[in-house]
């Protein structure tokens, strides 16, 4: 009998040891493999106080999600220095934006909401 494993959404983290290939050959050099281990992820969670790096929401194993601050799809490295742990809802909203782009978008949303709230009071 084969055990069925529930698949997590692509962005969600499972604290298991993972190997990532970092970038590609640089100037003819070999591809480096950067291990992101359970220990490193747990240390990061502890450093963040088990809170989302962007919203301070509480992180549990069910909602903790690894995020590349500079998305790999946009040239960011797949290293521990480019990773933070976010709440999965926040990570989904951030998508492929950089942290700075996401924060700016959030500011624009708040500004618009404030303007609309002001219009309602007029």
Short description:
The chain has helices at 38-47, 88-94, 99-120, and strands at 18-22, 32-36, 64-68, 83-87.
CATH architecture: Orthogonal Bundle
Major sheet summary line: 2 strands, antiparallel
The Rg value, from CA coordinates, equals 18 Å
User: CATH first level: which class?
Assistant: Mainly Alpha
Write the element-wise H/E pattern from the N-terminal end onward. Answer: EEHEEHH
Strand content: 15-25%
DSSP strand tally: 4
End-to-end CA span: 66 Å
For this entry, what is the oligomeric state of its chains? single chain
Could you explain the architecture of this structure?
The protein has 122 residues and is of the alpha+beta class. It has a single domain (18-120), classed as Orthogonal Bundle (DNA Binding (I), subunit A), CATH 1.10.30. It contains 3 helices and 4 strands. It has helices at residues 38-47, 88-94, 99-120; strands spanning 18-22, 32-36, 64-68, 83-87. Strands 1-2 form a two-stranded antiparallel ribbon. The chain has a two-stranded antiparallel sheet with strand order 3-4. The longest helix has 22 residues, at 99-120. Mean pLDDT is 78; it is low at 1-31.
